[in-house]
Each structure stands twice: as C-alpha cells, then as structure tokens.
TrEMBL record:
The protein's name in its UniProt record: RNA-dependent RNA polymerase
Organism (species): Rubroshorea leprosula
Lineage of the organism: Eukaryota, Viridiplantae, Streptophyta, Embryophyta, Tracheophyta
Pfam families on file: Mitovir_RNA_pol
Recorded superkingdom: Eukaryota
C-alpha cells in the first residue's frame, strides 16, 4: 500500500499520510489490519482499492476544445533528437529482430486488396443525406447502414487521398499495397516487388477509380469519434477509409503473428507476461501520455523499411496511416464545410486503423530491446512485460535507459500514474500485484459490480475473480437468502440452472465438464452434443442487396464482381466449414484416414463453437457480442437436453463418433465401433440422471 502512495511523488490532490506512508483517509482499524500483513491484509487493501475506484462510474470528461486534439495536431518539438536516435537504432533493428523473433523470415505477408464488405462504421455514412438529395430514389434506404450503398463513395475518397499523396511528391502512394503478392521479411526482392506493384496499380486500377462528385460536398476520407470510459477519461479514435483499411489488414495480420511469438507481449494474453515476472523485486511501471498520438512516425517507418522495403514502408506507414484527413464530428458546432472541422495526425498515427496497434507495439518492443542492448550487449532481455503503451521493466539499469530514450523521442511519461517499487509492486493491464509480483490485489471496480445485475456482467466479474462463491454470485444478481440456500441439485427455475452453468464453467477445465456435471462427457453424450451444436449453427440463406439500391446498371455490375462477390465468398467459406463438421459428426467421413483420425482425436466442442462469424444479410444489424451470446444460450439449451437423457456407462471406445440411437421393439440400443467391430448396448434404469442408475446389458 505504501508503494501506491509514495511520498517522493508529488500528487495533484493533497493526501495526508501517516508516518508509515498510509493515507489517513483509511480508518485506523483498517490500517491496523494492513500493518499486520498476511492474506487478510491483502484482502483489506483490495477492498479499499475497490472503494477508491468509485470515481470510475462517473462517465464524464472535460468539454471538447482545442486541448482535446493537442496531442494530434502538435508537431514534434525537436525532430533532430528523434533523427539522431533513429541513426543509432536503425543499424540494430535487423539483428535485434532476428535475435528475439528468429522465425520472422518464415512469416508470409499476403498483401493485396480484397473486396470484403465492412460491417463496421464507415466515414461516408455521414454523406447519406447529400446522396439522397442527388438521388431521391434512395430515400427509402436513408436509415439503413450497408457497405454496398457506400462502396462508390469510399472508392472516390480513396482516389482523392491518392491524388493528394501524388501531388506532394514526397512518398509512395497506397497503390504499392494493392496487387496480390506474398512478401517475406528481409527479402532482397521486396524492392523489385514494390516497383512492379505500383506500375500495375497505376495501369490497371488507378485510372478507373471513380472521382468524388462536387455535388457531394467535402470528401469524407475519415472522421474522429470518441468514447467516455469513466473517471474523466475520453478516448478519441479514428474511423478511416474502407480502402485504406483493406490494404492495411494483411499488414495487421502479419504484425500480429510477430507479436504472438513474443513471450513478453500481452496482446493476446494480458496477464501471461506479468506472471513471468514473479519473484522480481525492483520493478518500474511507466505510464505514457498519449502514446499512440505522440509516438514518432519515423520510428515506425524505419522499422518497416528494414523489415520489407522503403517503398512499401512509405506506402503503408506514411500514406495509408499518416496521410489522412479526419472530420471532427464530435465537436457540437462543427461543419464539414469549414476547414477548422478537419484534422490530421502530425506526430503519430491514428488509433483505429488496421496495423496501428501492432506496429506501435512492435516498435515499442524494439526500443526496449535496444535499451537492454546498451546495458547488456549481446544478451536476450526478457525481464519486462509490455502491452501497447503499458510496460513493466524488472531491471533498474534498463529502466533508466528506457526513460532517457523516451525523453529523446519526446514521449512524455506521466509521473503521477507511474509506479516505481523496490518490493515488486506493479500495475499492469488493470492488474495490481505486490510482494515480488506474486500476490494479486486487483480491485473489483465499482463499474463491474454495478453491472452484476446483468448475468453477463456477473460472468465477467467471476472470470476475473474466480474464487467468488455461487451464493455470492447469485446475491450480486439480486437473489435473497432463501434462493441462495438452494444447492445446485435442487435448482428449480431455468434462470437458476442458467446461472449455475455460467458459474460452474470457470471452475472446470473446459465447458464439456460443465455440461457433464463435473465429469467428462461420455462418447455418446459428446457426439450427441456435437450433432446438436452443428445442427444449430446451420447457415442461413444469403440475403443480397436489392437491385434498386444501385443508381445505374454499371454500378450494379461492378458491385457484383467486387464486394458482392466477396460477400458470397465469405458465406461459401462458412458453408464449407459447416459441411465438413456436419459430415464428421454424422459418420460421413472415412475414419481410417490418418488425417481425419488425427482431427477427431483433437476435436472438442469448443472447436465447433469457434465458428467464423458470418453476415447473412446485406444490412448492418448484428454485432459480434450478440452472436457470442446466442452461442452461449445454445449451450444452455444443450445442458437442459443432456439432463433429460438417460445415463449410460460406456466403455472407452475412443473418439470415433457412434451412430444415433437405434430403437428395436421399444428398447433404445446404442451402436458404435469398437476395434473395427460393432457393439450393441442398451440402457436400463430411470430417466432422471440424479436419482436413477443404469447398467450395461
């Protein structure tokens, strides 16, 4: 607790401290518990931190003004310092990447523009009113959000950006990323590929892009949006051009593969790199101010140049990411016809674009590696944890060098939010660890507790604190003491059973154990569940856009060969995925095939539930979290059916799917393969699995 309220750090709010360094706002009896130490003291600190997080429920922030966009529009004050640092860092980029990511040469970057519709927000949705004024027949689609309606406008805005880049004559345009190509890091042919790809784009694509019609008003190349996260914090993000997003998506996937191979990165598992630091004493947690907005673009450009090619780096970083205009729609009195309503990122790059986050994270790793190289030459430094702009360094010399380098890059460190400890106290990814990074005292935020009245809110709460009892879990949902007194076997309502399935899911190795009541599913139960899930995920019919959505026959034909084709291709890919599992669970495959047999042995119900999310309608109307919620409801229905089935004690017959039940003269028999022979069993006993029993016959 003393580490969290260090006297050496000035605080904007005056806090009275005791001689031991504890805030006097904490009651004396609570301070005595903390003085004693032990597990009870840890729980007391966790409770106090939960109370101190009460301010996070206040979803208010400062009023939007010029200071809100200061980190975006202000240039780097001393660019010579950044250039000097890059002259020292650039020779070390390649050897550092090969040392920390030795398999980086084998990761393919499958570049190319793919005509896949975007079901997220588009900047041109703001132009729908002007579009309806020009084409009154589109008035009935005014309130509908569809990428097919906005594709022509997105292509026209993309052409405007290309012409703007070419008019400056300082960098390569986005056309380098357009042709389909497979690149590899440190390949000597990348320079040749860039020139060839740019020529192909300028000959076959660029001249045929539609221009932006003057009657449509200002060109909608992007816009800024914001979200108030609580605690007075406002996060500004960018909604970029659809074409730029499609060009950057392969780069995003490629960079994410690199990050996934780093054991010190928390992009895919936020707590894994933190738990690696268990036992560390001297820890340095730095909080960067406006990191993505102020992180020098030059560092990201030089890194991509070393990895691939200067032309490719210029097109991806300088053109796609940096050269953009965004409408400040979050300002109340802003008008798209005024120049002051548009802004561009000067020092850094916009958060919200593909490859923005992984490229920033990778260059952040490079800076840490370079600092460690200056302290421990030739060694592989892994005593740190990094998640975007959140970092913990468990080495004093490297941490000091890191702070010096950030000062050279003119990236500010927030001293009030940073934590420097001599006893292993860290704050990383909303987690607080103490005692040599071994004890977790992370608070339960007030926001998460208030959201516990919703069943998914409670699920999120116990996912982070799995030691919550089932009775506490139900009390958070408003249940009384009589309801909480009922044990799981005596649950009455469907809601109670649904809550038990949610709570029990996190205490089992997999949800297959939850479906089996704490025991593994028998072969017949497993394959019955697999059939049920596959049948429930059967793809729906595809609903394409109506013909009157397009203002001309040429536009309709163009859509059919581009976005509509990509739309159908995604649907066919889902059909192919579903049909393969359908044949698998219904005995339509050759199980003697070694490849099929290997997939069966590794198959789990979670693999089937991890189906790709496919859009079946041309309208934007379903979110990803709604799809995931519907799939969990599917598990609840499956649990209800499994509870009504008779209990059959089966022999270990392997993972080969048995055929369905066979009914002969009113008796249910179960058939299945056993050593290439057939066995035939029947179930005896009562239907209720809690009271009855069954034997093999």
């Amino acid at each position: 607790m003393v580490e969290l309220f260090d006297r050496s750090t000035s605080c904007p709010v005056s806090v009275s401290l005791t001689r031991c360094g504890y805030p006097r706002i904490i009651p004396s009896y609570a301070r005595k518990i903390i003085y004693s130490g032990g597990e009870r003291a840890d729980r007391q600190v966790q409770l106090l931190l939960t109370f101190f997080s009460l301010f996070t429920i206040v979803e208010k922030a400062k009023r939007i003004n010029k200071e809100t966009f200061k980190s975006i529009r202000d240039p780097v004050e001393n660019i010579d310092q950044v250039i000097d640092f890059m002259s020292r860092l650039k020779p070390s980029i390649r050897p550092l990447l090969l040392r920390y990511v030795p398999e980086i040469r084998s990761y393919p970057l499958e570049q190319g523009f793919r005509w896949i519709p975007s079901w997220k927000a588009l900047p041109t949705y703001r132009a729908i009113d002007r579009l309806v004024q020009i084409f009154p027949e589109l008035a009935k689609y005014r309130r509908i959000r569809s990428p097919f309606l906005m594709q022509t406008l997105e292509l026209a805005a993309f052409r405007f950006l290309i012409e703007f880049v070419n008019s400056r004559g300082e960098q390569f345009c986005q056309g380098v990323l357009f042709p389909t190509r497979v690149r590899f890091a440190f390949d000597r042919n990348n320079k040749i590929f860039s020139g060839t790809d740019l020529d192909e784009f300028e000959m076959k694509v660029g001249p045929y892009l539609p221009p932006w019609h003057p009657a449509m008003g200002p060109v909608w190349t992007g816009r800024l949006a914001n979200v108030v996260e609580g605690g007075g914090k406002r996060r500004v993000f960018a909604i970029g051009n659809w074409c730029n997003q499609r060009l950057l998506q392969p780069v995003h996937v490629w960079l994410s593969k690199i990050l996934k191979s780093l054991e010190t990165d928390g992009t895919f598992n936020q707590t894994a790199p933190l738990y690696r630091l268990k036992g560390s004493t001297n820890t340095y947690c730095y909080d960067l101010s406006a990191a993505t907005d102020r992180w020098p673009l030059l560092v990201m450009f030089e890194t991509m140049e070393v990895l691939l090619d200067r032309s490719f780096a210029s097109a991806a970083v300088n053109s796609c990411l940096a050269t953009n205009l965004f409408y400040i729609g979050i300002v109340p009195d802003a008008s798209p016809n005024e120049e002051r309503s548009w802004i561009s990122f000067v020092a850094g790059q916009p958060l919200g674009y593909y490859s923005s986050w992984p490229l920033f994270a990778l260059t952040h790793h490079l800076v840490v590696w370079w600092c460690a190289e200056q302290v421990y030459p030739g060694q592989r430094f892994t005593s740190y944890a990094l998640l975007g702009d959140d970092i913990v360094i468990a080495n004093e010399d490297v941490a000091r060098k890191y702070a010096e380098v950030l000062s050279d890059q003119q990236v500010k460190i927030s001293k009030h939010k940073s934590l420097i400890s001599k006893s292993g106290a860290v704050e990383f990814a909303k987690r607080i660890m103490v005692r040599n990074v071994s004890v977790d005292i992370s608070p339960a935020t007030t926001k998460s507790v208030l959201g516990a009245h919703v069943i998914l809110g409670r699920f999120s709460l116990i996912h982070r604190w799995p030691k919550i009892r089932f009775s506490t879990f139900r009390r958070l949902g408003g249940a009384g003491y009589k309801t909480c007194s009922r044990l799981p076997p005596n649950l009455h309502s469907e809601r109670e059973k649904y809550e038990w399935l949610l709570w029990d899911r996190l205490r089992q190795p997999s949800f297959e154990f939850s479906l089996g009541g704490g025991a593994p599913l028998s072969p017949s139960q497993f394959w019955f569940s697999a059939r049920f899930i596959v049948d429930s995920l059967k793809p729906k019919g595809l609903r394409g856009p109506p013909s009157d959505l397009f203002v001309s026959e040429e536009q309709c034909t163009f859509q059919e060969y581009t976005s509509l084709r990509g739309f159908v291709r995604e649907w066919l890919a889902y059909q192919q995925w579903w049909f393969w599992y359908y044949r698998l669970v219904n005995n339509h495959l050759d199980y003697r095939n070694p490849e099929v047999k290997c997939k069966i042995n590794r198959l789990s119900l979670q693999d089937i539930l991890a189906a790709p999310i496919c859009q079946f309608s041309w309208k934007v109307k379903r979110l990803d979290n709604q799809v995931l919620l519907s799939r969990f409801n599917l598990l609840h229905k499956l649990k209800q059916i499994l509870d009504t089935l008779p209990v059959v004690r089966e022999l270990p017959v392997g993972r080969v799917p048995p055929p369905p039940f066979v009914v002969v003269e009113g008796i249910s028999y179960l058939t299945g393969p056993l050593c290439d022979n057939m066995f035939l069993v029947t179930c005896e006993g009562l239907i209720n699995p809690h009271r009855g029993y069954s034997n093999w016959v």
